[in-house]
């Protein structure tokens, strides 16, 4: 009998924890939706902002003239700026991270040819 009572108590505790987790998830979702609305409102407010300054100074500092000025502008534009065409550095950052990951993996693969894959993964 005690075992059954103990099992019921455990089940009740599990249900209580799951219910609390659902409430937390719902609150987090509500907060995320509010943040998204705030960001959208900020983006709408930023559309009246002046255009960003020309990036020729960046080229002068680097000593390199970019062929595609649009990519340079995108690389220096934050997503909250609200620029037309939804310019943001985030896609370029994603691509750059992938390229760096490939280069690191290639270097490690050829530098440590006898190392097992799981250790290569840890090394990366």
From TrEMBL:
Keyword Transcription regulation set for record: no
Enzyme class: hydrolase
UniProtKB keywords: Hydrolase
Gene Ontology process terms (BP): RNA processing
RNase III domain mapped to chain residues: 55-124
Positions of region (Disordered): 28-54
Bias (Basic and acidic residues) ranges: 28-39
InterPro entries linked to this entry: RNase_III_dom, RNase_III_sf
Gene3D superfamilies per record: Ribonuclease III domain
Keyword Hydrolase tagged: yes
EC number of this enzyme: 3.1.26.3
Molecular function as annotated in GO: ribonuclease III activity
This protein's name: Putative ribonuclease III
Organism: Medicago truncatula
Phylogenetic classification of the source organism: Eukaryota, Viridiplantae, Streptophyta, Embryophyta, Tracheophyta
């Amino acid at each position: 009998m005690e075992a059954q009572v103990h099992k019921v108590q455990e089940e009740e505790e599990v249900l209580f924890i799951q219910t609390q987790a659902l409430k937390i998830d719902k609150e987090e979702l509500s907060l995320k939706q509010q943040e998204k609305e705030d960001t959208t409102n900020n983006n709408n407010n930023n559309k009246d902002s002046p255009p960003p300054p020309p990036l020729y100074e960046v080229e002068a500092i680097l000593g390199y003239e970019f062929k595609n000025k649009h990519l340079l502008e995108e690389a220096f534009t934050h997503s909250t700026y609200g620029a037309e065409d939804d310019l943001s550095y985030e896609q370029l950052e994603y691509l750059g991270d992938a390229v760096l990951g490939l280069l690191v993996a290639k270097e490690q693969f050829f530098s440590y040819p006898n190392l097992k894959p799981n250790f290569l993964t840890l090394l990366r």
